[in-house]
Design a protein that fits this description.
By secondary structure, the chain is of the alpha/beta class. The protein is built from twelve helices and ten strands. The chain has a six-stranded parallel beta sheet, sandwiched between helices. Strands 6-5-7-8 form a four-stranded parallel beta sheet, with helices on both faces. Strand 7, helix 10 and strand 8 form a beta-alpha-beta unit. Helix 3 packs across helix 4 and helix 5 packs across helix 11. The chain is globular and about 50 Å long.
Length: about 290
Amino acid sequence: MPTRKTKPSNGVRSRTRPLRSAPACNAAIGIFDSGIGGLTVAHAVMETLPRETIIYLGDTARYPYGTKSAETVRRYSIENAEFLADKQIKMLVVACNTSAAVALDALRERFNIPVVGVIEPGAQAAVTATRNRKVGVIATDGTIASGAYTRALKQLDPKLEIYTRACPLFVPLAEEGWVDNDVARSTASSYLTSLKRSGIDTLVLGCTHYPLLANVIAEVMGPNVKLVDSAKTTAAAVRETLLHEGLARRSGSGSVSFFVTDVPDRFVKAGGHFMGQRVESAVRIER
Ligand code: DGL
């Protein structure tokens, strides 16, 4: 199944549909992230679609993306997608919020397979959840600066009031496993107190790492604020797209293989926190 367009289109999402033959359905779903964070999405996809084969690429050598320029993240994202496209994937999942915020259009232009990002499903879930139409979004600097969540939310409901906040320190805290201690609590309180005062009733966790800190975030925000975890909503969107495109695997049991761009030790060690199950091994690729 050819997955890379020979000529870029004019920016409109590709209408070219892949073949729906058995080999097409049996092809893998490619997922990439800047590192281990996207494992929260991979895990949700595996739970939702247990028959699917998943190829996951963590660009650990160039992590983090959240503090880099949009141009650089776009370039890295295209390179990650090219690696996965060479594995004849049937669908691409951009599990990194920062990549989805700045590179989704470029990826959809370049590859003629369905491309699902984490932002549209997260925005959709927030719109469904909110009652008072006041929605908060927390994410990396890059995602917040891109305005991608605000655009996606406004497109769904122009009357929403949207409050955004970059929470960059949540990423290293989650990587370190410091998700339920005084440091995590005081960081959450510094970042989120003003957001709480805005009266939002829904908060989008717009970064792969933030679901790990959901408990301390919920403590600060209080019981009346619903947290939207984009990993779960993205998995639901992946399922919907596969069914819509006739690309869901009809039999067999699923599997996952991991690729990384730096030595795999840290990815394998810390991956379990994000996956909710052990990451047995990962193959290093050259960059
Ligand atoms: N995966 C990134 C995201 O969801 C967070 C980590 C990073 O900055 O690379 O935005």
